[in-house]
Structure formats: C-alpha cells, structure tokens
Design a protein that fits this description.
214 residues, mainly alpha, 3 strands, 50% helix, globular
C-alpha cells in the first residue's frame, strides 16, 4: 500500500491480551462491574473515587464530570488499568448498560497497550489536558493505543472484507464507530504522524484478521 510502505520509523505493535476470566458475563449493576474488574486485573471506580485516587497535580486536567459516560486510563504508579463511570446510578439505564457491555473490553485493551509500553520503557504518566487535543493525539504512546481502537472498530464493522478493503474504509466518516476519532487525528496531526497511525492500524488489522480478533 503506497501510502504506508515507505514509513519505517516505528516499533513493533503491542497486541493486548484480554480474555474475560470473570463469572460475570454481563454487567448490570455496580457490584457486577467491581467483580468483573477484580477478576480481570483492572480497577473500576466512580468519578468521585477517581478524583480522590489520582495525584492532586492531575486534577486540573481530569475529565469533567459527565463529559463522557465512562473513560479509562493506565495508572503507572500501580501498574493497572482503571475504568471510571460517572456514578453507580448510570448502570440503571439500559442504554448505558448496553454500550458499556459492548465497549468495556476494547477500552481495557487500549489501556493494556499502555501497560505493555510501560514494560518497554517507563512511562511518566500525567493526565492529558482535555483542551490540548493535538498534544494528546500526537503522543507516541497514544498513537499506538488509538490505532488499535480504530483498527478494532474497522474490523468489527467490515470483517467480511479482505485486509486491503477493510483498511480502505478508514476515511468513510460515520460508517464505523471510531471514524470521528480518525477525523480528529487528520485535523490535528502532521503527515508523518498520520502515516504512523496508518501503519499501526494496518498492522493491527493484520493481527485481527490472522487471529480472528484479539
């Protein structure tokens, strides 16, 4: 593929390994979420708990309450992914539950990539500024993790196609869940960074196809 074949300055991708080891197969309430997290080696908490959990120096850059239904980050201090919901009450809403159960595994896989990166070289973790999207999207650790998220989103929608055709759907805005993220990347990153994203996305798609999902 001509737009990625000459790009050589990248490290090998980190393939996130996650298999649900919990007896909880569907998360319906907060106790289910806590059990699911404990059984799968990550933390889960409410937003208020998150604010108390993080270093005070990170609080200025913390996502605002309600800015997203849930989010996650990799806690380098304790070497563990952390999943955050606004409040226990969120889990009472059927639509929230449906989205959470669909997305939680992929969100944790994103953070497991950061865990793998930390094992390669010590990551100095600081919560990114929510107003500095360019800095966030060009961070070398986020490039790999977001590339996985985009590749998995493409794969889930277009898995019946071959590798080249799946990849060629990347610019089809609205056709796959992570297409808005890809548009943000194109708006905020230079050509070299976009090439790096494309290379990682292509490599992750190869991995997903060869392993029939990861």
């Amino acid at each position: 593929m001509k737009h990625i074949k000459n790009f050589k300055t990248f490290e090998a991708i980190i393939v996130p390994e996650f298999q649900n080891n919990s007896e909880v197969k569907r998360i319906d309430d907060y106790s289910d979420l806590l059990k699911y997290a404990e059984d799968n080696n990550f933390k889960a908490m409410t937003y208020d708990e998150f604010i108390e959990y993080i270093d005070p120096s990170d609080r200025e850059n913390a996502p605002k309450y309600g800015s997203a239904p849930f989010f996650a980050f990799y806690d380098t201090r304790n070497d563990i992914p952390v999943f955050v919901i606004n409040s226990e009450n969120e889990l009472r809403h059927p639509m929230f539950n449906m989205i959470l159960n669909k997305e939680i595994e992929n969100i944790i896989k994103h953070e497991l990539i950061h865990k793998g990166q930390s094992s390669r070289s010590k990551i100095e973790y600081k919560l990114p500024s929510p107003t500095d999207k360019k800095k966030y999207l060009t961070d070398k650790n986020e490039i790999m993790a977001f590339s996985y998220s985009i590749a998995k989103s493409l794969y889930d929608v277009f898995k019946r196609q071959d590798l080249k055709d799946i990849f060629d759907n990347i610019d089809k805005y609205g056709r796959y869940p992570m297409s808005e993220l890809w548009e943000d990347i194109k708006k905020n990153c230079d050509e070299k960074t976009i090439k790096r994203y494309k290379k990682y996305i292509y490599l992750y798609l190869e991995e997903l196809i060869n392993k029939k999902d990861v």
